[in-house]
Amino acid sequence: MMKIRTTLKFVVLLGLSILLISCETVSYYSQAARGQLEILTSREGIQGLLQDPQLPVELREQFELVLQIREFAALELQLPVADNYSTYVDLGREHVVWNVFAAPEFSTQAVNWCYPIAGCVSYRGYFSESSAEAYARKLEQEGFDVYTGGVDAYSTLGWFDDSLLSSVVNRSAHQLAGLIFHELAHLVVFAPGDTTFNESFATAVEREGIRRWARARGEQQLCLDSEQNLARQAEFVALVSQWRDQFDVLYSSDTSETEMREQKQGLQQTLRVAYEDLKESWSGYDGYDAWFARELNNAQLSTVASYNDLVPAFDRLLQQLKGDLGQFYRRVQELAELPVDEREQQLPNPDLLARETAFQI
After folding, report:
1. Is the distance from CB of 102 to CB of 132 less than 8 angstroms?
2. pTM for the full model?
3. Which of 19, 138, 208, 295 is the most exposed place for a label (fewest CB within 10 A)?
4. What CA dihedral angle connects 326, 329, 332 and 337, to 10 degrees?
5. Strand partners, 164
6. Beta pairing partners, 121
């Protein structure tokens, strides 16, 4: 009965969406509908799967871990868990969707696409890699910088109960916890049309959740690994942001397009060298090698901005509230109700954020 109600809800939602779109985008929404419906009809309850004596040990351990993460998210992080991540879907492929990002040749400002439910976002998602690549080629032919990346999980923003997917099930404890915290955070606050606000908030919740999760488990090595990974992530973001600013300076100059194109390539190469220097300080940790092996074009640079630009401001806000997540969520909900141009102005100055968290859990 629950599956029937879910399917009916999906059909109604799809019908309303199609009424709001033009004929030229019907094929895009159709593939999205097919992909989401496939997930909804493939769900299996985790509790039921755990009763299967033939369940592989590795999957059993991960399913039990997810149940612990769900409980922690609800009780300690005050996240709206409900029935999210209580089911499992074996996708039979590496990623659940592939997102296409685009930016002008001489701008790091991402192109936005607007949708009936989610508002405007800086990517276009496809459940088929070949479809994503075909759309990416079309954008490239129009002169855009394009970046296509596989996505292992996403939030349906409360329209459906999200499932644990095979694309993420084998992640480490802190990675899996962080992903679930991040996606559940979208159910707390989501401001349609403001990708940077939404993703930065979810990333801030993810990072804080990982810290608290590691401490609560009382595993010293997990705590150390968690803090080290968060520190590396922060340094990666800082590096890319610093060089993105250099690209912006170039693009705002009076340089000719030919010269600008040459200097752009030079900056891309210099960014790779800077990354190699940073990696040395990480004792050779290569977790970002695949990212830097790509073109490093404007579309790729914009993805880091979308997920991280406002994270320091959200960190500062949580610090001001002495780590009270309930107050933090309420304040961010208030910010989400403001006009877009007022939101960032109301966030605290991240420059005041101490290098280490001022409160302990």
Report:
1. no
2. 0.84
3. 19
4. -110
5. 88
6. 113
Q: Which amino acid is at 227?
A: E
- List, for residues 90-109, the tens digit of each pLDDT value: 999 999 999 999 999 999 99
| Token pair in block for residue 354 | 């101490």
Write out the E strands in the chain: 44-45, 87-89, 97-103, 113-115, 119-121, 124-126, 145-151, 164-165
Q: What is the residue type of 216? A: A
* In contact, 78 and 325? CB cutoff 8 Å: yes
- Quick one: tokens of 166? 């095979």
Alpha-carbon torsion 351, 356, 358, 361, what sign? positive
Encode pLDDT of 110-157 as tens digits. 999 988 767 888 899 999 999 999 999 999 999 999 999 999 999 999
Q: Which residues pair with 124 in a beta bridge?
A: 100
Q: Name the β-bridge partners of 35.
A: none
As to burial, measured by CB atoms within 10 angstroms (0-12 exposed, 13-18 middle, 19+ buried), residue 276 is exposed
Residue 350's pLDDT is 64
The alpha-helical segments, DSSP class H, found in 194-324 are 195-217, 220-251, 257-281, 289-292, 298-308, 311-320
Residue 149 in contact with residue 40, Cβ under 8 Å?
A: no
Q: Which two tokens stand for residue 211?
A: 């810290």
Q: Domain residue spans in the chain?
A: 51-359
d(CA 132, CA 10): 23
Tell me how far apart the alpha carbons of residues 357 and 324 are, in angstroms, rounded to a whole number. Answer: 13
The single-letter code of the amino acid at 170 is N
Bridge-based pairing state of the strands 87-89 and 164-165: parallel
